[in-house]
Each structure stands twice: as C-alpha cells, then as structure tokens.
Amino acid sequence: MGFEISNVEFDNFLKKLQEEYKIYAPVKLKGKGRFSDTDVVRYAEINTIEEIIFDEKSNFSPKEVMLPITKTLFYFTEDSVMEPKVDDKKILIFLRSCDINAVRRVDEIYLRNGVEDPYYKKVRDKVKFALMECEHSFENCFCVSMGSNKIENYDLFVKHKDGKVSVKCKDESFKNYFDGMTECNVEPNFVTKNDVKVKIPENMDVSVFSAPLWEEYSSRCISCGRCNLVCGTCTCFNMQDIFYKDNKNVGERRRVLTSCQIDGYTDIAGGHSFRQDKGQRMRFKVMHKVYDFKKRFGYNMCVGCGRCDDACPEYISFSNCVNKLNDAVGEVK
C-alpha cells in the first residue's frame, strides 16, 4: 500500500507518531565537520521532512542510535547495583538499504553470537526502519559487490521530491495514520551499479595472513580509528568504571565504542599487546570483514557503504585493500 501526500501532511504524521516514537534521520549539522567551516551529516532526532538529508550519504552510520559511543550499563554503590531507566518510546530510523543490512550484521554479533546482549536487545526490540532510496551511487560505495544494495526488511519507504512525499507502508501499525489519504503505487529504486567494484577472494587459507600487502599499511595507517567509528558493522567496545569524587565506592560502568585500529585495544596484563604493528591491525580488520564473519555466519560483514574510505585522513581505501587481497590469493594459488 502506498500514498502520495504533501510535506505538511507528512509532518503531521511525524507529529502524531512522536507520541510513541523517537524519530531519527540524517541531518546536516552546520559547522560540526572535521574543520570549523565544514558541515557533517549525522543522525539526530527530527520533527519535519525538510530536516532529513535525502541526497547525501551520512558521514556516520545510524548504528550510533542503537549503539551510542558511550552507554551507562549500571550504577553502583557500596552495596547495590541499579540499571539506568530506559525510555519507553519506540524508535523509527530513516536509513538506506546498506544500513539496514548493516543492522543485520550487528544483530548477529549482539544477539546470535553465543550470548544475547540484554542492553542491545532492549533497544533493538523497539526499532523500526523507514527506508530511504539511493537514486544514484555515492562516492566510494560498493554495495552492489557486497549484495547489500537491496532490502525487503523495512517498515516504511519514504521518498521526498518536488514538495511531495511518497510513502509505502509495510507495517500494519502505521497504516491508520494514512487513512483518507491518496493511495498510489510506490516502490523504492535500488542502486544496481557502483563506480567501485570489489572482488572478494574465495577459498582463502592462512597463507594470506603473511602476504606482503599488509606491510604497506604499517606506514600509511595512523591508528586514528575513524574507519571503525563511522562503520555500520563495527561493534568492538571497551568497559570503563567511573568513580565519583565524593565517594570512591560509588560510580557507574560504561560501555564505550572503540576500534581495533587504535593503540591499546589489544593490550593485556603484563604490558603485552597482540597487534602493535598497524599493518597487523589492518589485516585483522579486513579479514574479519570478508573472512572470519562469513565463516561463522555465512555472509560477509562489510556492506560496502564506503564510509571508511570517506573518513580516512590518509586516503586508505578498504575496497582497494580487498581487491589487493584478491590478487594476493591468486598469486599464492
């Protein structure tokens, strides 16, 4: 079922929906980019259709709505532990097909990877998706190669063009909001071709871990971790205990997103570290995205959104690295 409505009618829908939902979408934050005179497209709560950025790829993924950079898991005193209050409102997120596919990957890690994470599940159970189509492929995207350019698992499809909003409603709970509005046939368009193409090698073995290609990144990478923090499928975190000044026995435990590329991530007792060399860290990240995850769950972790390439200050390309890996595997064989 589809509808074509005006901006005002859609804004009224959002206003009614806000009684039980928090609504997140990519918005442009003026002066919040890498430099003081640049902007950034990032996820935030919205009130109107005009706030949503439909024609640009967000610099950060919608992952941060469900997995905030810092999350308090519980507060503690000398003799008690208390979890923070959870907002009862549901969540609606506007996002693209690659990002919905990315959420599936995050679900595998937090919900179906041995132990179900209760903190993530509380949020995830409340989330619904509003699909935004890509009329064309954005820079550095390679979603077609990764098979994440299409998706059927969404609750709404929303297209905004020429002052009109086209909506396809797949979730029964939303249909009542559109009673009496003009019905029409609405279907999303999906990207079928990217400028960037990636070939993921098949039948890899341990010999590729010692391939010379990783040495290049020992000097190029600066361990800033931007690639991981903007990625929609990276899920690594550290735990931090915060102790209050007034009483050293009172505080909170926080989960903080981190990066396998950052110094200190693999440090262990005794001052040892598993991967001190930056080339080794790059190898770990790449092989996790296109080898380890697939070996466990049956499909690749990377969705080809290209945000890692967009964010890297050293112009390191993940897609190029995977293609170099494919060439290295061919040489070994």
TrEMBL record:
GO terms for molecular function: iron-sulfur cluster binding; metal ion binding; sulfite reductase (NADPH) activity. Keywords: Iron, Iron-sulfur, Metal-binding, Oxidoreductase. Its EC number is 1.8.1.2. Residues 210-242, 293-321 form the 4Fe-4S ferredoxin-type domain. SUPFAM superfamilies: alpha-helical ferredoxin. It is an enzyme of class 1 (oxidoreductase). InterPro entries: 4Fe4S_Fe-S-bd, 4Fe4S_Fe_S_CS, Sulphite_reductase_A. PROSITE patterns: 4FE4S_FER_1 (PS00198), 4FE4S_FER_2 (PS51379). The lineage of its organism: Bacteria, Bacillati, Bacillota, Clostridia, Eubacteriales. Pfam families: Fer4_22 (PF17179). This is Anaerobic sulfite reductase subunit A. PANTHER family: ANAEROBIC SULFITE REDUCTASE SUBUNIT A. It comes from Clostridium ljungdahlii (strain ATCC 55383 / DSM 13528 / PETC).
